[in-house]
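Supplementary Text 2. Reproducibility record for the structural model of the 245-residue chain.

All settings were left at their defaults, and a single model was retained for analysis rather than an ensemble. We include the record here because the model underlies the residue-level annotations in Supplementary Table 4.
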Amino acid sequence: MLKRDDALKTVVKFTTHKKGIEVENGVSKNCDIQKIGTGFFMKRDNVNNKLYVITANHVAKEFNNTTIIEIMGKNQKVISVNLAVLQNGLNIINHPTADISAIEIDVSTFNNLNSDVQIFCTSLIDNSKISNLSRDIELTSIGFPTNLGTNSRFAPLTFRSFPSSNIIENINLSSGYISDIFVLENPSCGGYSGGPVLDLGYKVNTFITQSSQTVIYGIMHGTISDDTGGKMAVVTPAIYILDII
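Retained model, structure tokens:
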């Protein structure tokens, strides 16, 4: 079981700078656009020579040679490093249909950072629980909405929500992703994409009540909305991770 304060140590923030054009008072001008995304560390159980950062594929598609990855250091210090340095020539593996990518990280380079990172193992992906998703389970999402969470210290944001659906099969999402999904009652926010959606295994009321071990249910995809103003978050089930690492 991970407490929320421990789960914060698993996530990373991506920042990519791109050139773009904005229109102000009818005049187009060149500008710098920041693309923010979230990811989290993961490895296969008992495979210590392979380390990955899992994120949404639509986040990974934006990466270029400016992309910075920020992770948890000692005493909540922010460790910032160019993603290409941390990869050291290793590959990004994209799922063929789902909105998930796995970025292979050079283990020796990572170890030299002397971080305070926690790494999820694939044993936390429970296919039976994901397939039989209960709407009574409280899930926690972790990420960096609107560029928050890495100013004076490493402090990503969390929000709690309940599923508003069971697993919905074979949904054709924007940008051509086709996969199963599930939906949360609360909307997501720009910057949360790629972050983990977890059952931490406990609830806090007057006392902490443990119900089960931590389970990774999914990866944040984004928000669906309509012209009534209604919004809900869309999550890619975590079982797809096992296809690519």
